[in-house]
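Methods — Computational structure assignment.
A single polypeptide chain was analysed. Its primary sequence is given first, followed by the predicted tertiary structure written as structure tokens.
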Amino acid sequence: MTLAAHLSFPKVPLSNGLQIPILGLGTSHDGGFSHDAIVYALTECGVRHIDTAKRYSCEEKLGKAIIESGIPRSDLWVTNKLWPGDYGYKAAKKACLDSCSQMRLHYFDLYLMHWPESLQSCNCSNREMRAETWRALEELYKEGVCRAIGVSNFQVHHLEELKEDCSVVPHVNQVEYHPFQQSNQLMGYCRREGIVFEGYSPLAKGQVLRNPTVLQIAEKYGHTPAQICIRWSIQNGVVTIPKSTKKKRIRENCQVFGFQLEESDMAALGSLHDGRHVTWDSTHVE
């Protein structure tokens, strides 16, 4: 029997009433895409949430995998991200529509600004460019091309400025989140503002899997270190998107709903924060 036959992933409500599956499958550049793995995740593991970005250069291939899976579009949650080289009102609208065309989709469930700093050369501040770009996303949202809009790697000051400059508060903020990097202040802010907090790199690119505390807890529950870290993230209410191109790992990463970590173990994992980043650090972006 496939996992998909008996797995139904919990969902998290957005401020506009939509619900995003709390567990998804991420993709990435530099070998972070596998056609067979995507089809397997959708058809055999019950995955209904796929995360990608223009930056990953796999939009067309991902679109083909989604079609081959045979899963109805209405059952899927597809997130894409706008690259900072496409910031600005006109460029952002064109990039989103081009991405839809590349993936052979009529809409995205969630479309994110990928980074708080623009790569466009212009005589304006990052804040002004973010506001101009967000205005394009607001229009795409109102037009139904994007069912929800959000940001990625934004810090509190970026979100505060966007709230002052624009009319739609981001539905989601997607940032690096794992036991070594816990943005608790940012998470608290997002939750107060009704912004869903989403975490990528939940395994810290494998670094957390060798941690003695994680290994000890994994042994206690009879689960793998990866499952413990993903469970910890989900149990903290974080929408979590582990990446893998290996069928065995994808299946393993989906088997995190049949057990609950005790409060003491949640606290032990919570104590591992040391501030390290395994990806980009946007803390000092103005």
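Note: The longest helix spans residues 126-143.
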